[in-house]
Amino acid sequence: MAVTGLGKVRNKRKQEEVEEVEKGPFAGAVDLEMHSEDEAEDEDREGDDASDDGDVDEFPEIDAASDSDEESDEEGEEEDADDLDEEDTLDENSDADSDLHIFPKSKKVVSNITGQTKVVYPEIEPDYDSDSSTEDDPNRVGNIPMHWYDDLPHLGYNINGKRVLRPAKGDELDRFLQTVEDPNSWTTAFDKNTQMDKPLSAEELDIIRRLQAGENPDAEYDPYEPTIEWFTGKGKEEVMPLSSAPEPKRRWLPSKWEKQKIMKIVRAIRQGRIVGSKPTAADKKQQFYAIWNEPPSNQPPPLPAPKPKLPTNSESYNPPEEYLPTEEERKQWENTDFEDRERDYLPHKYPALRLVPAYDQFIKQRFNRQLDLYLAPRIQRVKLNVDPNSLLPKLPSPNSLRPFPNYKSLQFVHTKARVRCLSISPDGAWVASGDESGVISLWEVNVGREVKRWNLGSKVGAIEWCPRLDACFLVAGTEERLHFFIPPNISPAMLTTTQSILAPATLPPTTQSSIKWISTSGAAEDGPILTIELPSASGLSRQLTWHRKGDYLASVSSSETQGSVWMHQISRRHSQAPFKKIKGAVQMVLFHPTKPHFFVATQRYVRLYNLAEQKLLKTLMPGIKWISSMDVHPSGDHIIVGGYDRKLCWFDLELSEKPYKVIRYHSRAIRSLHFHPTYPLFASSSDDGSIQIFHARVYSDLMTDPLIVPLKILRGHDVQEGLGVLQIKWVNKQPWLVSAGADGNVSLWCS
Length: 751
Known about the structure:
Helix 1 packs across helix 3. The longest helix is centred in the N-terminal third of the chain and has 29 residues, at 2-30. The protein has two domains: 2-99 and 108-212, no CATH class; 401-750, Methylamine Dehydrogenase, Chain H (7 Propeller), CATH 2.130.10. The protein is built from ten helices and 35 strands. The N and C termini lie far apart (136 Å). The chain has 751 residues and is an alpha+beta fold. Residues 1-107, 121-142, 292-330 are annotated as: Disordered. Belongs to the WD repeat BOP1/ERB1 family.
């Protein structure tokens, strides 16, 4: 019977499908019903009558094939009806719903265990027509964490209570091959319930794309649709207020009813019929709690606050006599700053306790105590026992770096004025010094004997010997003039060469320039052999420097215009201004000892130019407010710069544009710096009247830093009118130093 009932259900569903096919699209649209053939004929007649009355759409034609299917279905229905009648006779207590033949028929059997009758239903075949379980999730574990099944061979249970086994998984190589072979593998998503990849529909992929693009996931949503004006237009205006009735008086008059209620309560309180609640006494019972319930802390317990110092005998109102300060100690205590005093009070003696006045520092001490408690750190600091000598750099002993000058050997005196400049001959035998009165003195280094004196009549700002060894002459700079002098007592061959350089027989062709070259060969012994007249308003020449070959001479004047720097060529008797425009006032210039480079020091910067290519190479930034002096190491890779703000900066030209080391040993402005041409020494002089001697060793290895060691402080010049040692020069081939001071003395320092 179960099989028969199941067949009836199948035939019934098949008949419904055929009816849906016969119904057609038009029938579905107008919701027509299909009846038996007689009813159809009646409806056709009625339809003909209706068609005569009005226009009615025609019914679509039905296929001939559908007629044959109908007939077969009708035969099947007749057979099913016979079987159904037989089943109805067997089961009289069946439901009225069984006539629908939707579910399979059940049967009653006797249980072998209990002996009672029970209803047994036939098993449902897993067919699409009979069950929709294939469309649902086969895993029916519910909304639980799926990691509970990680160690089990199954994923959960299906609707029948059977285990759902875990699908086989491949390794990473299989997954990679699957992504390569299957072009649609990227359109799948992993399902945790089934542990499988499920394909995503086009709608789901579109939602994912919209979410990644930051768009609205709903494709039908229009963010730019026109706004619906609910309260705009005729008849939609919202009238405010909602009621235009006048404000009643009860809104601002006090309520009489509330007044009556309050007065009733007041009379009851006065008569004693209402008594307020008495305040309950505080619970005097001790409250106990478990002190170990709080979790333990890993932090150390807080340190207690520092206790104030206890008073001593000196704070008594009647201290002993030895604690009372004297008048000198009282004055010293009053003149000392509050932070530097040993104690904040002075002991005072009173004859009786009743005569002690109020403590005037009470409020201040209480306030400081509160600040200590609030701001004092609760950390126990450990004092470090560090040897101060270990913090100092380890430098070699000065005795191991000899020779260097350490005492004054002789002294040459200019009696009229302070000595501004000096220069030493290339052979180291002669010293030329000039003072502000216009006197140039030539004297020997070894004995200090003056050999020659020239009086120029104006202040001498700079003196410099020519570095050539085949000629011997010096240049002195005064107001708007440069004078060339030939010293006496030189060999005839050197004299001839010097005269041919400064006063040749055939002069080179002159060019139009504001600078004039004037030769005075007749007065060469008593005066200059050659004079260069600088442009007017040039001022005093404060620096002269030679190129290493001795043909070019650079001069710096005191004027701050572009004509303050001039470069003179002796062989061609030609002068030119190398800069058309200068940023800042030029303080000093120097030639590079080995390369065609030119250093120009302005007030705050040092610029390095390439004379061959005529371009700026780099700008050094010493950080000095006003540069006063400068010198280049004989190797050409290092330079020292001094300033009026007491700084001495050492630059490594290959390293950086910032100073490698900054030295502050002078207490006043630095006036002069000079490297020794052969020894690893350099010196600096200052307005404090001292000369600092340094050992400066430069290594050929670029990875090794220069060694700078302070050696000696030489003091022998007096400071006059705020000026000390104005210029220093090293003696070639000897570790000797010559210094010129504002006191008019020129000193020679020997080792």
